[in-house]
Amino acid sequence: MGTTTISVNKQTIEEFLLNARTKTFLIPEYQRPYSWTSEQIDTLFNDIWEFTCNEGGSDREGTYFLGSIVSYENDNREQEIIDGQQRITSIFLLLRAIYTKLNGVDEKTEKAKYFINKIEPLIWKTHKLTGKVDYSSVLLNSKVISETENEILKNILETGEINEELDDNYSKNYNQIFNLIEEKSVENALMIYEFIYALLNQVIILPITADSQETALTIFSTLNDRGLPLSDADIFKAKIYNHLKDKNEKQDFIEKWKELEEDTQTISESIQQLFYYYMFYLRAKENDRNSTTPGLRKYYSANKFKKLLETNILEDLREILNIWEVIAEPKKNIENESWSKNKDILKVLNILTSYPNEFWKYPVIVYYLSHKNKENFEKSFLKFLRKLYVELLKKYIEIPTINAVKANILKLNAEIISSDKPVFDFKSLSEDEIKEKIKMPHRNAIRMLLKTLTYDIQDELLEKKWEIEHILPVKWENNYDLRENEKVAKEKIEHLGNKTPFEKKLNIIATNNYFSKKKSYYLKSEIKMTREIGEIKSDKWDLDDIVERDIRMTDKIISILKLWNKEYK
């Protein structure tokens, strides 16, 4: 086993940045774009200013700890920043703004000249023999995905100027820093020099230099600092990127990653989550039925990240994202995949989204990746999804806990790999047990049940924002008929027969003629089930009506479950 070495040595900002004279700083491709906000810039500047006024400056010996920077020396002899890129970029912008301010004065004081000379070798390369500054060669180079913003940073550090029309974080933060310096110069011109002194000599960085990228990533993962930490997905990105040899392959990978990242954000997912879903597919292929879920990084890092490096993983992640795009936006179809237009499939997927945890997602993904290219996929996928819903619903009605189906799902995932009609090893409730439990289901199952009944009589999917409407309101303090049976009323109000999906929340109290008022709202609903309630001729809705509707709804649910079960068999 090889040894791992790291170097940790507390340094001032000046000492730390002078290291870049021989090994420039690099923010690599896999890092996130610069994203510090104006609040973070304010905090950084004002913290150092307050420190200077109270503890630091040329007459005191205080120190201000800014945090750690984790890096390693890459093959090009650059200090590749693994952690701390937000902080180091902000320090460069701060120094450049100070330099611009000092250099903009026509008659420079001795202090201004002194600090100009101090700052120049911290931002630009200088000739080792003559000390001549090369203002076109900055010591911080960014290669993050956004090429345009990389050029903006380079231009700011080279020229000290910004385009006022730009709205990127580099330009906004540089401008903000410059304005803060201007304000402080007006308040106390002499204190500016003390501030610069403290920044260079009393603000402390803890550089942690590793012998390899892998070591640096490991160190990073144990630190909790002020910056924006890398996710597991960022680390996977670095591993895959550095494994690629061809320059064109690397560029293609970066473009695909960026596109994937942008597309996940539009549906409130993340690449990290895609890796998590994909892990269940890989585990199913390995026939891993263990109900203990490994940590994401631990799983993918096994065997030197073999699972990341020996598969066409971006293509598979894109396939997984296809499913979620269709679920999130049912009107979005996948080219050459007719299932994405199938209303029955879209309906059952929409019902499953209301399942109280994520376990339904894993077999759906495994099934899709395993069988999507088969000729009869659309028909088999629908039957599978309906069967999955039947089993999940019955299990949750019986045991409404998060982990009740975990072991069953892991077994099912492994079965799916070898068959497009896998065996479901779920314990079945009797019909009478299901009927009884459906009447007053756990609150987390109600949305699934209401969707099931809704989609039995209409093709249009429910809007994302809809309420569970109590036909007989929860508030019935002034209804004397209900007061006589208060205990029974409280129970019946929460029965399935008293609920319907509705686009808006009605805060009507159950007094005389309340139901006739509600009916006019229900008639305007886009949901057929709710409109049918509005069409009831009677202006009265009481406990007997709930009992009667309970029977009709539970009978319909049972018939749907039996039908979908029979179809699968």
UniProtKB/TrEMBL annotation:
Pfam families (alphabetical): GmrSD_C (PF07510), GmrSD_N (PF03235)
Domain of life: Bacteria
GmrSD restriction endonucleases N-terminal domain residues: 17-240
InterPro entries: GmrSD_C, GmrSD_N
Domain GmrSD restriction endonucleases C-terminal, first and last residues per copy: 428-554
This protein's name: DUF262 domain-containing protein
Organism from which the protein derives: Fusobacterium pseudoperiodonticum
